[in-house]
Amino acid sequence: MKLDVYRRPEPEHKLSYLIVPAGKEIPQEATSTEWVAHARDVEIDESAASLTEYGIDEPARQLREKRYAITSLDHQLQAND
């Protein structure tokens, strides 16, 4: 599936990622924070158990239930500043 990837900085120099189907808007319940486009129209296997490069667990379930998938607090990634 082609997805758009967004990211946002978190405290302690960490990052969170959010993915949505390519070309779709970020659902309103997830727009209260400042997401920045990271990659557009990326082919990602959303059926994988997790997307370690984005710290996202169960992306298919999250996309089905919420229309987006997001990094869990336990898996925020270290920013490479």
Describe this entry's structure for a reader:
The chain is mainly beta and 81 residues long. A hairpin with a 3-residue loop joins strand 1 (2-10) and strand 2. It is globular and about 30 Å long. Helices cover 10% and strands 41% of the residues. The strands form two sheets. Strands 1, 2, 3, 6 and 7 form a five-stranded antiparallel β-sheet that branches.
List the main descriptive attributes of the protein structure presented here.
81 residues, mainly beta, five-stranded antiparallel sheet, two-stranded antiparallel ribbon, 1 helix
Please outline the major beta sheet. Answer: 5 strands, antiparallel
How confident overall, as mean pLDDT?
89
Number of strands: 7
- Per the principal axes of the C-alpha atoms, what is the gross shape? globular
Q: In sequence order, what are the helices and strands, one letter per element?
A: EEEEEHEE
Q: Tell me the distance between the termini.
A: 30 Å
Task: Compute the CA-based radius of gyration.
Answer: 12 Å
Map the helices and strands.
Layout: E1 2-10, E2 14-21, E3 36-43, E4 50-51, E5 56-57, H1 59-66, E6 69-70, E7 77-78
Antiparallel strand pairs: 1-2, 1-3, 2-6, 2-7, 4-5
Short description:
With 81 residues, the chain is mainly beta. It has one helix at 59-66; strands at residues 2-10, 14-21, 36-43, 50-51, 56-57, 69-70, 77-78.
